[in-house]
Every structure is written in C-alpha cells, then in structure tokens.
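Most newcomers find our protein records easier to grasp once they have seen one. Nothing more is needed to start thinking about how sequence determines fold. Here is such a record, shown just as it appears in the course material:
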Amino acid sequence: MKKFITTILVSASLALGGAASHADEMGISNKDAYELVQAENQNVLFVDVRDPVEIMFIGFTDSVDLNIPYLMVDRNQWDSEKNRFRLYRNPDFIAQIEAALSARGMDKSATVITMCRSGSERGLPSAQFLQEHGFDNARYVINGFQGSSVKQGEKKGLRIKNGWQNSGLPWQAKPNPEKIYRLAP
C-alpha cells in the first residue's frame, strides 16, 4: 500500500510540477526519482548518462537500470576553451535507449529518467534529445548524481550541496560491472 501511495504522490508531483519552463517540467528531484524506480510495476527506465570513466572516479548508484553515456570523452581531442578533453554525443544513444526499453518489455511511451553529474550538461540535454526523438516521457534528475558545488567558504568548489550522493540515497564508490557501459570490441 505504501508503494502505491508513493507512486500516486510522485506521479501527481510530476504532473503538477512547476510550469516555469519546459526544462522545469522535465526535471525530477533525486528523491522522487528514487521513489519512482523503487515502486513496483512502473514503466520506468533509469539511466546514468555519464561517461563510465567519470563514474569510476565519482561513484554510482545501483538504483539505475544501466549506464548509457549521452556525451562521451574523446581522449584524442583537447578542448582548449574548456580546458578538458572534447565531449561528443554518443552516436548510438537513441538506439541503445530503445534496446534497453525493448529488453525490459517497454517502448517509447515509458518514462525514461536520465542522470548525469550535476543535471545540467548531460542530464537535461539528454532528456531533451530523447523528447526530440519521440520519447515524450523523458525526464532528468535535477542536480544529478554529485550535485552543485559550494560557491563560498572553505569548501568552495566541492560538490557537497544537493544531488543524489548528498541526499542520503544509496550509492557506492565503484560501478556495478553488470550495468556499466562498454564499447563494443
């Protein structure tokens, strides 16, 4: 009964979410995402869209169904402007999401929730990209896995504010090898 009530409450909060912008409507809190994926009989696919190397160093939650990177790191190209390796969109992202849904007996009408490190560079864009390709119920986890960085004080720059990792939700230091993305040999 508790899971049923939780499902109803989460669904209502999703439906009645802020109308400030399309991005706000697509966002879901980490706690609501967790409750939704824990509820029984939900038509939900929860995807970590970070590059697997990032997961290896930052952490992972086994609550996700799998890891399908939206943006991947090109270790051969340096982005001087951003002072990091260049990122490129996974050319198979849509096909891999469709295959994951199909493997679970779901289709494009399912709720697909994406989560990245902070919610901004890959979380929201991946959900928007999915919606542009017919996944009308694509959502993203606001503040992502690691959350926002503190702007002032002795902990300035540390990502210890909000996010999955800082909300008391389950996570571990290392990824689940059964769920982590691998390039085809």
